Automatic annotation (TrEMBL):
It is found in: Membrane. Residues 3-92 form the Immunoglobulin V-set domain. This is Immunoglobulin V-set domain-containing protein. It comes from the Eukaryota.
Length: 134
């Protein structure tokens, strides 16, 4: 899947997930998303369906039984380039679920390209991390 945006514009990242995680906290993670060093620009709390933090917003459309949450970045800048992950908190002492979303190549003239190799479904590509601290 390819999501494209341009400097000054916005990008929308759709994150399908497995049934059963509807009330779990969802978040967008930027960079390598290491256990001890996560850069989380936006995150819902458990049971919430929406969150906003500056230019980043997240909406979980679980009420429509679609099991997709959407992260939106507005006012895109060159600094928004890098790797992103869709993630779901799975509970205490359990590893969160991650799916690599993007490794955008963003320039002032070319725009943003969010590349994701998509197989059958995103959640099948998710794998638990080894630790849930942080």
């Amino acid at each position: 899947m390819r999501v494209t945006g341009y400097v000054g514009g916005s990008a929308e990242i759709r994150c399908p997930y497995k049934k059963g995680y509807e009330t779990n906290s969802k978040y967008l993670c930027r960079g390598e998303c290491q256990i001890s060093k996560k850069d989380i620009p936006v995150q819902t709390q458990q049971g919430e369906t929406e969150a906003t933090n500056g230019r980043f917003s997240l909406h979980d459309n679980s009420t429509a039984n679609t099991n997709v949450f959407t992260a939106t970045i507005t006012g895109l800048t060159a600094e928004d380039s890098g790797k992103y992950w869709c993630a779901i908190k799975t509970g205490h002492f359990k590893a969160d679920w991650y799916a690599e979303v993007a490794d955008p190549k963003l320039t002032q003239t070319e725009g943003v390209g969010f590349d994701r190799e998509r197989r059958d479904t995103i959640y099948e590509n998710m794998s638990p991390m080894s630790d849930t601290s942080a």
